[in-house]
Write a structure and sequence with these properties.
This protein has a single domain, classed as Up-down Bundle (de novo design (two linked rop proteins)). 74% of the residues lie in helices and 0% in strands. It has helices spanning 2-21, 32-52, 57-79, 85-110. It is elongated.
Length: 122
Amino acid sequence: MSELKILQKTFDMIEYAYIALAQYPKSEKYALVVDIKRCMDNILGYTIEAQKKYYKKTTLQNLDIEVAKLKAYIRLSYNLRFLPIKKYEVWSGKVVEIGKMLGGWIRKNSEKPVEQNKGDIS
């Protein structure tokens, strides 16, 4: 069920991001904006992929990398003054929330079931 929540949070973050990206300068429309959009598309793709796959470890690691890249792009946008402080705080807050949910998903996925030693006679 939490996997569905992270997908909804990703949709919400992308919707907010497109509004924020609309105010970037024209000189960045085909540079930084494209990189950010590609990164968000990868996040959405890996989230859907991880929900569908039985073995999720590699996909979740790739998703974690994309989230870290998006955080860096957002920080860079703020440092270059393409984002006002309020939009930076809201957008990065949404990404941090996705990152926390992803961390829980990774921990849950890495838990291995305890095997019982049946008939082990030493």
